[in-house]
Amino acid sequence: MIFFKNIIIIIALLFSLLFFTKRNYNIDNNDSYFKIEIHKVKNGYGYSLSSYDKILIKQDFIPAIQKKHPFCTFEDAYNVATLVKERFVKNQNPKIILIDLENLNVSINCVDLP
Asked: What pLDDT, on a 0 to 100 scale, did the predictor assign at position 56?
């Protein structure tokens, strides 16, 4: 009888240990704090970056260009959002400049824009 009580206590301790270990891992992993969502806008795409259900950035237009054009493709919006997310994770300035768009091969002239 004592043997079974000890087994139950050991199992409970193991589950507790696994639960708290997993929680600590997520806390240390800054990447898990941020969520990217790509959304459809008129004539293209935009993105938002949130953390714990709070929107940090909502970008409906391609940053760093003079005109207000949406991203031409889902992939372009996703690639820029991923770069912004990486910069947040590294505590860097998330600002996007023209060279970033060029390095990601982001199209800034969509065929079907008015």
From this structure: 93
